[in-house]
Amino acid sequence: MLNRRHIRIKVMQTIYSFKGNESDSFDKEQKFLLYSLDNIYNLYLLLMSLLIEVQKRAEDHLEKSSKKHLATKEEKDPNKKLVNNEVLVLLKNNILLQDELEQRKINNWDLDSEYIEVIFREILASDLYAEYMQTKTSSFNEDKKFVIDVFSDIIAPNNKLYDYLEDKNLTWIDDLPVVNTAILKLLRKVKPHSLPNYFLPKLYKDLEDKDFALDLFKKTILNQSKFKEIIQEKTQNWDTDRIASLDIVLLKMAICEIQKFPSIPVKVTINEYLEIAKEYSTPKSSIFINGILDKLIKEYQESDTLNKTGRGLM
């Protein structure tokens, strides 16, 4: 689920909040980093449980409508296409997913059901729903397409849901694009007989990614004085007060990768930090960072001290 760029962003946020130096204990910050990364999975589960609650809300809607004192013919014999949507039913009946929700105590919608109502009402009022409900039966692929469209067009851009998630956990807003992308990827590839663990993807692609997060954090902190000196040497003509604090953090991390991670190509490191700078720092930060790193790389190449192994890593 997680990509290396988002791991770098989480490390950046943790280092930015660290106020000590390499001689201080940073156990607390390291635990926060791991918690922050793991909490992305809680966001994923929360949004998956929202889809399940939409299906349950549809069931409740039909049941209450059919029991009206003056129920119409259509209300007595309703179109159950949404209730019977195969993808939503697949999620609802997924025991492993339910167990994970219970284990992590993801029960937000029990307390904040009004957000389910907001989403459900938007679905009912949408052209997507009107078109979907023109028939009473559908194929798995049609059901899947409907759920994908609902998630991408109604759930993902919902402002009230966005505000709710921001209120519950501020870091979730940075995580939301990654989680939304992961959910849509899973929905697009789901099959009628996908295994129960299909909707429980691994947070990390492999153990190396988790190790990378911890190593990047620790090695940057443990060498920050050294990296600071390198940055100061390369910015002698700059007013240090005008250099954004976040740019210093990004430069320290980039230099750490260049020096301490032999298997990561230089171009990958530079491109990643330039993109992060564009998203999180000042408009001119990426130009500033690129200039510093470019000078540094040329020096390492000229002195043959660039610590990279393997082909294509220069």
UniProtKB/TrEMBL annotation:
Keywords assigned: RNA-binding, Transcription, Transcription antitermination, Transcription regulation
Annotated Gene Ontology cellular components are: cytosol
Q: Does the keyword Cytoplasm apply?
A: no
| Regions crossing the membrane | none
Q: Where is the NusB/RsmB/TIM44 domain?
A: 207-298
Transcription regulation as a keyword of this entry, yes or no, is yes
Looking up InterPro entries in the UniProt record yields: NusB-like_sf, NusB_fam, NusB_RsmB_TIM44
Q: How is this protein named in the record?
A: NusB antitermination factor
Whose protein is this, by species? Xanthomarina spongicola
